[in-house]
Amino acid sequence: MRPETFDQPCRSALNHVTGMPFEWTLNPYMGCAHRCTFCYVRAFERRADRPSGDAYGRRVRIKPNIAEVLRRELARPSWARETVVVGAATDPYQPIEGTRRLTRACLEAFVERGNPFGIITRGPLVVRDLDLLVEGSRRAKVAVDVSIPTLDEALWRVTEPGTAPPAQRLRAVRRLADAGIRVRVAMAPLLPGLSDRRDSIERVVRAARDAGATSLWAGMLHLQPGTREHFLDTLGAAWPEERARIEALYAGRAYLPKRVSAPVLAEVAALRRDTPRRADAPGPIEPLFAPDPEPPAFARQLGLAL
Predict the structure, then answer these.
(1) What share of the chain is helix, strand, coil (3-state, %, to 5)?
(2) Residues 211-250, buried b or exposed e (16+ Cβ, 10 A)?
(3) Interstrand relation of 142-147 and 117-121 (parallel, antiparallel or unpaired)
(4) Quick one: residue 35, left, alpha or beta (phi over 0 = left, psi -120 to 50 = alpha)?
(5) Which residues are CB-contacts of 70 (< 8 A; sequence separation ≥ 6)?
(6) Domain ranges of the chain
(7) The domain 4-302 belongs to what CATH superfamily?
(8) For residue 84, what is the enclosing H or E element?
(9) Distance of alpha carbon 255 from alpha carbon 251, whole angstroms
(10) Per-residue pLDDT, 140
(11) pLDDT digits (tens, 9 = 90+) for 103-157
């Protein structure tokens, strides 16, 4: 089912954030047709009295003038050519980008000014813009984070209903790496008892390294109100016993206790260290995205705090 879309011109393109490894974000679209059941944005939508359940992602707001506004902002004498992360609050390569091409238009603006930028996405459509990514990399620091939390197709179908299959995303990672683009794989979120087992993590790490990923990072599932209800309801419809287990695990909390999350993240770190990069993979890059930020900083960096 295609989402309803509507144009809403923006007054500003760049969003200033604090408490994260980067200070600027940009989102050509608001609302996401990927409709991941665990999406943290659902929590902020609920606080704003907007749909956070099954209706989330059925409407996508398009910023038709964003590239024009971005060019003006990048041309300001006060602009210091800081790194801008595209897609921190909504995926810049969701299906509507195939026709509207607003993400591409923004990348063109960055390349023209030689401005560093990063991209966070679950969309293989990112490879369509390889020409801009390559040219941008010649002029400034450019990096792409591709989110692949699991290779389990049954789990993917239930929890990421609007996204491309993990295998397609791995092919995108390979094409990006083959073109010399610095690309990382984001294993986020890992779902307790479902995608955080060693065998599951190891499959993703090995596949990502084989595809040419420069690095990997992981983050655990967060269940803020708004996200919690939809995720648990969807999980329960497929696997009732898993809903009961995770509901008990997160009882009275939105974040896993460190005693539960720390061993999993340590496992990822060990596998990342011990699994060699492809010999011709691009060199290491600084993180674009904090793996497990504290809630207040998380809200601020997305520009979604209410």
Answers:
(1) 40, 15, 45
(2) bbbbbbbbbbbbbbebbbebbbebbeeebeebbeebeeeb
(3) parallel
(4) left
(5) 13, 14, 26, 106, 109
(6) 4-302
(7) Aldolase class I (3.20.20.70)
(8) strand 84-86
(9) 10
(10) 96
(11) 999 999 999 999 999 999 999 999 999 999 999 999 999 999 999 999 999 999 9
